Amino acid sequence: MADESKQLLNPVSNRRTFLNRLWLGLGLVALVQFIGGSLAFLISGSGKKRSDKPLFIEVGPAADFTPGSVTLIRRGELYLSRLKDGGFLALSRKCTHLGCAIAWDEEQKLFACPCHASTFAENGTVLKTPAPRPLDQHPLVIEKGQVKIDIKTRNRRQSFQPEQLTYAIKKG
Amino acid sequence: MKNSRQKRNIFVHARPQTVPVASLRFRLTWGLGGAAVLMVVIQLVTGILLNFSYEPTAQGAYASVQHVHYDVLLGRLIRNLHHWTGHALVIIVFLHMLRVFFSSAFRGARHLNWVIGLSLFFLILLANFSGYLLPWDQRSYWAVTIATSMLEYLPGIGPFLLELVRGGSEVGASTLHIFHALHSGVLPFLLLFLMLWHFWKIRRAGGLFLEKGGDGDNKLIGTEGETGEKVGQKDGSLRLTARPHLFIREKAAAAVVLAVLFYVAIFFNAHLGAQANPGLTPETVKAPWYFIAVQELLIHLNPIFVLLILAPAVVFFLLFFPVLKSNNRFLRPLFIGLMAGYIILTFTGLCLRGPGMQWIF
Asked: B145: distance to nearest CA of chain A, Å?
């Protein structure tokens, strides 16, 4: 009698166990899918937006910027630096240490960060740490004598290279 | 002492019916855990109220905060309460963590609860940080810029994380949306879930941790010379009914906490500086005070060392030191050293650094 009842019970408990495990397994799959989908949504949403495409703005004729001058371009929050040899460099205003907005010191001829006192030369190289690398550079072109800067794109640099400069008249 | 009202009352039912006499001693816990719970409730209530008036856009955020502060009836009080309670919560939970450590209430079956508690602490820090940006004034904008910029130093994954957190390369409208969603949606939900789990684990572990044989005298504060009614004995300790003995103490503690918070909220305004200007960095910019220790470390040490080695080592130690043997002679000095280091670095960054993070002397 006891054996019979056990046999009667077994198929039910086996089925119940199987279904429980199936629910658990499917639930885990659903959870992984939910987490994966949410992450994909969040990561995709934080990526490049339509507004992040290159945006070139005209800042003026090249002749308006004298060699050795540094001009603040408010619209792009950047500095247009024309070195003594005439080469142009568009430098980001963001300090490479922790992102504070740097300011040009006309007297000392350098960029200074108010947050942790990093300083940069007019070509963006680090004069005083804790900034870890030179100021980022914006792409710059000169077309028909007009200086145009891409205010959306910023390129990291590990060092200053002469090839980074853009000249109004190509050096022969 | 059961009655039908007691059975139906959810607040009573959430407590044990009886508690050891020794657990009612104020110096056992200083009421820190309970104060933290009350503060979370205050944050939820004031946060929901503020959310009705807050506009989470770069154009409207600052003006909406000004509107709440100056135009809305009781808006200043609610905003101040939310602000100061948020900061007080970090301190209270930190002290609660210290208390749990020094009373060794993290061992054995309580280890998981220690981990849950630590997670709660980090969530509270995140909640504070995400809320820090919402006023969208100069201080909050640049503090969040600096704090999030630290992510960039992580090799490989840094720039990706930075863009994920900020919703772009700069702190801007996307950052505000993300921080608002975290602050008012995700984090409160996670906090509530972990808090409930935390309470349940405490009940399962038998309530407050008492040293073995530490029932001590059963005199209660305020009842000098009297002994507690002997309701029953459990594990050899005298016990009293939670109602009224525990409840009356909790009400008194809640009244004190509320009085202090309301006093501060009435007489001290939450800071609101000039509206955020991405083109102008103020002379003195510091990370929020609970992260200023990290900013101070970044000045002295290599950022990669701090973020990749030191920070993970500290977190790993905090999570897993309960598995070390209780007689490990390095445990206490190491923990005290860590906490003292955090306090000293925070004090240094807050009080000894001026414009440009230069020494004030």
From this structure: 6
Yes or no: say if B130 and B267 are a contact pair by the CB < 8 Å rule: no
The verdict on residue B221 lying in a domain is no
Contact present, B168 and B160 (Cβ < 8 Å): no
pLDDT score, position A45? 67
**Using CB atoms and an 8 Å cut-off, which of residues 63-82 of chain A contact chain B?**
74, 77
CATH number at residue B48: 1.20.810.10
The 3-state DSSP class for residue B286 equals coil
Flag if A154 and B174 touch (Cβ within 8 Å): no
Nearest C-alpha neighbor of B276 from the set B126, B97, B141: B141
Residues in chain B: 361
Of B279, B356, B358, which is closest to A77 when you measure between CB atoms?
Answer: B279
> Total structural domains in chain B?
1
- Output the six-digit token pair for B68: 């709440």
Q: How far does the CA of residue A2 sit from the closest CA of chain B (Å)?
A: 38
For residue A49, count other CB atoms closer than 10 A to its CB. Answer: 11
Instruction: State which residues form the domain around B140.
Output: 18-208+226-282
**Which CA distances in Å does B280 have to A96, B58, B169, B215?**
16, 16, 17, 61
Contact (CB, 8 A) for A146 and A62: yes
Residue B101 above 60 pLDDT?
yes
pLDDT in tens, B212-226: 554 444 444 344 334
Q: Is residue B253 part of a domain?
A: yes
B23, amino acid identity: S
The DSSP letter of residue B213 is: T
The pLDDT tens digits for A130-159 are 898 999 999 999 999 999 999 988 899 999
Say how far apart CA A143 and CA A162 lie, in whole Å.
20
Tell me how far apart the alpha carbons of residues B194 and B201 are, in angstroms, rounded to a whole number: 10
Q: Which residues contact B304 (CB under 8 A, 6 or more apart)?
A: B153, B154, B155
pLDDT at A47: 56
Contact B305, B294 (CB under 8 A): no
Residue B357 falls inside a structural domain = no
A152: which chain B residues are within 8 Å (Cβ-Cβ)? none
